[in-house]
Amino acid sequence: MAQNNKKKDANHAYWHANLRLMAGLLTIWFVVSFGCGILWVDDLNQFHVYGFKLGFWFSQQGSIYTFVILIFVYAWRMNQIDKAHGVDEQE
Amino acid sequence: MSAQLLTYVFVGLSFALYIGIAIWSRSSTTQEFYVAGGHVHPLANGAATAADWMSAASYLSMAGIIAFEGADGARYLMGWTGGYVLLALCLAPYLRKFAKFTVPDFVGDRYYSQTARLVAVVCVIFISFTYVAGQMRGVGVVFSRFLEVDINTGVVIGMGIVFFYAVLGGMKGITYTQVAQFCVLIFAFLVPAIYISIALTNNPFPMLGLGSTMANEPVYLLDKLDGLTTELGMTAFTSGNKSTLDMLFITAALMAGTAGLPHVIVRFFTVPRVRDARISAGYALIFIALLYTTAPAVAAFARINIINAMDGLQYAEAPQWFGKWEDSGLIAWFDKNGDGEIQYRGGAAMSPATPAFAEGRGVSGERLLTNQPTANDNELYIDRDIIVLAHPEIAQLPNWVVALVAAGGLAAALSTAAGLLLVISTAISHDLMKKTFRPHITERQELRYARMAAAVAVAVAGLFGIYPPGFVAEVVAFAFGLAAASFFPVILLGIFSTRMNKEAAISGMLTGLVFTFGYIVYFKFIDPASNAAAHWWFGISPEGIGTLGMILNFLVAFVVMNLTPPPPQHIQDLVQDIRVPQARHALT
User: Fold this and answer.
1) Which of B258-262, B288-292, B371-375 is predicted most confidently?
2) Is the ipTM of this complex over 0.90?
3) Containing H/E element for B351?
């Protein structure tokens, strides 16, 4: 029974580390797309970067670059978290 | 060689390649037929997912929509890529750990209910068929425009090719053909874009060319385009017309819909490990982003080139391509002031907005129309599909580049069609036959059913392509709304809540589905005249209503879940199990 509870707690810790990482990344996901790309697009358009209005850039390109980075950060961090909790897939 | 001949050569070569791959990668077990044996390399799966995902709509239509809508086009750019973040973080790794064959498999097992499985099967078949009909039509259109064969002959040739590698090869054949198709379509999309980017901005990277200065004057390209569009009385390119709320809802529906589309989800059943599923989504999005960050550049370049090429042009002196696209009905000109010169301004040139051609020619030789002229000065109708199809010709690119476009369009349409057909055949042979009606069939029999279902699905899809039901174009975009309102919430809650039970899943799915379906059918078919912002609930267009359907699904599920008993212990254990990539081992 004690063994079982210990396993439960360990899985719990792993799951919470996962949820924390997800929450952080999904916040960035929301801010760049719905925030910078749609809600604040007019305010950001007052700034110019290179030949782009900033809001326009976020909505047409910047958010997409960010999405790619988010997935790679997630994959990389999750591999670390898997290892740290001893649940990584071994060959 | 002429562009026509080169087109035949490129299309022929690409088809030979697909058939060769199909013969090399035949499937002999259901495991191979459904999920390619579960050992596709994550990089290959990424490329296959990208081709699976990028359809005729992404390849042929999206740049055109952005060219004419400017900033509003962002809903497609963000919606059809942002969904991959949801997929990678919230769905793919857990579904991979679950290790079954289909989305209804997950719904049926997780919710320990044949009813839930059947609802899911119906959703899968409905979503996939509406989507595939558009692809087969796309195949026909590309054939008829570029190879001057009859549209129906084009559809039949396309069916033959898909039949060959989907029925023979199953998921294994489809996966490796899709990898090849991705290479073809991305090459065909990027080469003309790079050519045009260099011509307009001296920058060989179109995604950066969009932010560069013009090659022949020290003005930023986007400022130049804003100036041109405003001058002609059109909405400035970098400004939008849609309300902020509608943009939010449409983008959210496209994102959640992308993550909930069955043919995309099943691709993540084909990789060996959970960690591969995560990284594979990343590779897929890189491949997709190559096209999606180039598309807005192509759109802006095309808008500039079209304005420069067409406004003030004497019809009698119009280049050959103008007549060709006028003949196919994608361009129409209404000489309102009778000066023989094309005037391109803001607003629709005619009413109704799409041209209806009459017999005979006008004074300057243009095709006559039965439409009424509108009060504004605009004389030109341009179909948005022309951007990708005709832009290489308008920009006077070399023949071999013009010829690439057809091969790319066919790769985009065929790869998506194959992915969808596989999902349909799996839903029938696995979820309906094996799991519901005929649980005792052997693996060989199941595989035979799978091939038969794939063959029938190809034939039905082809019929849809030859006799397109009027609703197809209207409905394709809504496949996303339906996926968002039905699958996304039940899969998400199935993973992230151990308390989620079958009562909540079934009632939530049905609520989301019926609501979204009803709203779309009302505004698109029952009372299309009232399809305007003033009549929409909260100003949300039918395109974005899937988001509201999804919210309702979540709410209903939450309430029902708390009023009904929790799921049995073995289901709660199953949920705990899919959350962890592998059972705990000693730390090393």
Assistant:
1) B288-292
2) yes
3) strand B350-351
A90 contacts B289? CB cut-off 8 A? no
Chain B hits for A39, Cβ within 8 Å: 244, 248
pLDDT digits (tens, 9 = 90+) for B369-413: 888 888 888 999 988 877 888 888 888 899 899 888 888 988 998
| CA gap B587, B356 in Å, rounded | 72
Helices B3-24, B399-426: axis angle to 10 degrees equals 30
DSSP string, B82-139: HHHHHIIIIIHHHHHHH--S-HHHHHHHHTT-HHHHHHHHHHHHHHHHHHHHHHHHHH
Residues of chain B contacting A64 with CB distance shorter than 8 Å: 77-78, 81, 289, 292-293
pLDDT above 60 (res B588): no
Q: What per-residue confidence (pLDDT) applies to B475? A: 62
> Is the model more confident about A56 or about B588?
A56
Q: B81: which 2 tokens?
A: 């890529």
Tell me how far apart the alpha carbons of residues B541 and B75 are, in angstroms, rounded to a whole number: 13
> Rounded to 5 degrees, what are φ and ψ at B331?
-130, 140
Separation CA B249–CA B551 (nearest Å):
11
Compute the distance between CA of residue B284 and CA of residue B576 in angstroms, rounded to an integer: 28
**β B357-361/B367-369 pair status:** antiparallel
Q: Which of A2-16, B368-382, B387-401, B518-532 has the lowest mean pLDDT?
A: A2-16
Residue with tokens 């003949």: B327
Q: What is the pTM of this model?
A: 0.92
Residue B141 CA: distances (Å) to CA of B154, B190, B261, B314, B540: 8, 21, 25, 29, 32
* Cα distance between residue B412 and residue B183, in whole Å: 10
- Contact criterion met (CB below 8 Å) for B43 and B279: no
Residue B584 to residue A82, Cβ atoms within 8 A? no
Taken in order B3, B6, B12, B16, the sign of the CA dihedral is negative
Asked whether the beta carbons of B235 and B346 are under 8 A apart, the reply is yes
Place of tokens 């003033």: B534
Tokens standing for B127?
A: 């979503």
Q: For residues B469 and B570, what is the distance between their CA atoms, to the nearest angstrom? A: 46
A88 CB near a chain B CB, below 8 Å?
yes
- According to DSSP, the residues that pair with B357 across neighbouring strands are B369
Question: Helix %, strand %, coil % for chain B, to 5?
Answer: 70, 5, 25
Instruction: Give the C-alpha separation, B32 to B558, whole Å.
Output: 38
DSSP assigned state of B220: B
The pLDDT of residue B471 is above 60? no
Amino acid present at A52 = F
Structure tokens that stand for B308 in this block: 């420069």
Crossing angle of helices B274-310 and B62-69, in 10° steps, is: 50
Could you tell me the two tokens for B356?
């209806």
Q: Can you give the pLDDT at residue B233?
A: 87
- Pick from B89, B273, B584: CB nearest A10: B584
Structure tokens at B327: 């003949």
**Tokens matching residue B134:** 């558009």
CB B89 within 8 A of CB A26: yes
* Among candidates B78, B88, B586 on the partner chain, residue whose Cβ is nearest the Cβ of A33: B78
- pLDDT 10s digits, B110-168: 999 999 999 899 888 888 887 887 788 778 777 777 777 777 888 888 888 888 878 87
Which residues in B422-451 are b (16+ Cβ under 10 Å) and which e?
bbbbbbbbbbbbbbeeeeeeeeeebbebbb
Put simply, whether A71 touches B (Cβ < 8 Å) is: yes
Measure in Å the smallest separation between the Cα of A1 and chain B Cα atoms. Answer: 16
| Range in B161-175, B264-278, B550-564 with the lowest mean pLDDT | B161-175
